């Protein structure tokens, strides 16, 4: 058995353990043990991957294995990872681990909640370890299905509306994606669903690419909050429980950017070059529109949700630049946004759990009441606006430097437009911090509130360490990613 299968097997064993659990202690024990094993496994995989590359292994994907699932359509359980998928697996493991502690106080149908949470995690991990298009699609759907119940049952506010809207929009995107994947399969000769094999054949007719590229890019792009198909995201984020928001924004939305890069652009490079400008305009709108929308929001979760639209738009914007620097920046942005938005949603959930409001007009002076959570919120905000030394700065600088490598007017103009989001982000983050954390405590009931508990502190500190670590020492992961984006960039540029 390929050891990559452990990323799927451990969540399955966690589901079995939860089903057999009889009390809250056992449930928590299963989640802590399982999420810790996933984090350790991701760390070991990163070490083994870097060691293999250091030893001179230049294969595009490492730790390969294939098991036939359905021979008539050449569907296989094909496993393999490169620097991009290793980074995504590490991110996913961190979010699942910290999300477990962020949900420590969950008291409503706890077993059922964690069962669906583990199923969502299984889909995410499975998606990143597979290189067979149909298997990727299957894990993609496994990751989406639990979102309906996690929001509809354990959410808050207009949770039924948000759950239904999210499900309908993402299932519509899945239909487009399925048509696109089948189109790629049949137009490439109907001999393999393996991404690497299809890329080597390079035999998809350009006319077919022009049909199936938009379907595939949109199918994944909707999950990546591509304008104007982003509206499910703010509602879903605002209504989801804390750990679900963390996993949703921190990891699930990254499936969109990963799929656009790995399948749509890699397998249909001619269409990407011909039609990329259309999506580049849409992603530029996403980046600026998301930031402007965050300014006018009054709900803490909606502010962070629209901020996520902007930052995820920046991921798609960067991969459409089709060069190594910008593409490397896109993957680092996935990591950075995943960590800092998980940190934001964790802190917002902890503040809401105490104050019972997310309306910034009803919050003030929290620094005096809960200094630990407030200081952590400031750090998250500074990472969001791109302060040097934190992950946001590394990601955004790499993206914009790569984007400016294009010398034509169109690419320069959209890059300048996208960079304005930095200023807009600084406006809403600094204004939010000043309004909510400083000043006098207007609601005297808030004076009775307590600061973070041990489980909350542990979850938040882990995320802050990851955000700071990526910002201070990004070179090792940047090099790991940069080598892996090269085959896709070469396919896009060497036509």
From TrEMBL:
Q: Which organism is it from?
A: Bacteroides luti
Q: What is the lineage of its organism?
A: Bacteria, Pseudomonadati, Bacteroidota, Bacteroidia, Bacteroidales
Keyword terms, alphabetized = Membrane, Transmembrane, Transmembrane helix
Q: Which GO terms describe its molecular function?
A: NADH dehydrogenase (ubiquinone) activity; NADH dehydrogenase activity; ubiquinone binding
Kindly list the biological process annotations in GO that this record carries.
ATP synthesis coupled electron transport; electron transport coupled proton transport
Pfam families from the entry? Answer: Proton_antipo_M
Major place of residence: membrane
What is the protein name stated in its UniProt record?
Answer: NADH dehydrogenase subunit M
Q: Which GO terms describe its cellular component?
A: endomembrane system; membrane
Q: Where does this polypeptide localize? A: Endomembrane system; Membrane
Transmembrane intervals: 6-22, 29-52, 83-101, 113-131, 137-156, 168-191, 211-232, 244-268, 274-296, 303-322, 334-352, 372-394, 414-438, 458-477
Q: How does it sit in the membrane?
A: Multi-pass membrane protein
Residue span(s) of domain NADH:quinone oxidoreductase/Mrp antiporter transmembrane: 132-416
What protein family is recorded?
Belongs to the complex I subunit 4 family.
Q: Does the keyword Transmembrane helix apply?
A: yes
The UniProt entry's coiled-coil ranges are: none
